[in-house]
Amino acid sequence: MAAHVAGPARAIKTTSLLLFLLLLSFLATVSSGSLQSDALLRFKAGLGNNAALLTWDPAVDPCNGDRSNWAGVLCTDGLVWGLQLEHMQLAGVIDVDALAAINNIRTLSLMDNRLAGPLPEVKKLGKLKTLFLSNNYFSGEIPAGAFDGMGSLKTMNLANNDFTGRIPISITVLPRLTMVRLDGNQFTGRIPEFRQNLLRAVNLANNELEGPIPKSLSHMNPNSFSGKYI
């Protein structure tokens, strides 16, 4: 008789545990969606001329599975994994701290906008694989350690801005970097050695660089170093 009673009791416990786990999963999903929304809305608040982001509605989750409800937001399994906000005339400030609250962000592309000022502290986004900030109005020197700790970064495009000073040494040691574009800026000084085994494409043209092309880059396309100052 005791064994007969134990069977249904065990089944009830198992069912209760499953329901509890499902509830936790649901609450985690809701919480994640809310955190993502809050972070993205903080990021949006720092931008000027953000009419292109009208679909960023706090009443709607950014992601529905792999589908995005918000313009320029890239989603997978209900999570934001990237931003592709290109050709939107965006201006203002990039709130990196807001983006850092999105744990799964891997891609940040803000090409062809009107963003200005110094390079944002992108090293706070340590899991980025892709960083595209080309064709904006960023300016000033980039700190030597600006990319410290960005061990996942594979592609970087900072072309056609107004960056000055030396090429930051932290770019030259990013272990997974395969492509980097720094052309169309005002970088000065000698070209440093790039120590990445995976590096396949480099463009440093149209800067104010001087001196010889380093041995580590000697196999690259010569047009990547064109410009009257090299």
From TrEMBL:
Domain Leucine-rich repeat-containing N-terminal plant-type intervals: 36-76
Keywords assigned by UniProt, alphabetized: Leucine-rich repeat, Repeat, Signal
TM region(s), chain numbering: none
InterPro entries: Leu-rich_rpt, LRR_dom_sf, LRR_N_plant-typ, PRK1-6/SRF4-like
Signal peptide start-end: 1-32
Taxonomy, superkingdom: Eukaryota
Descriptive protein name: Leucine-rich repeat-containing N-terminal plant-type domain-containing protein
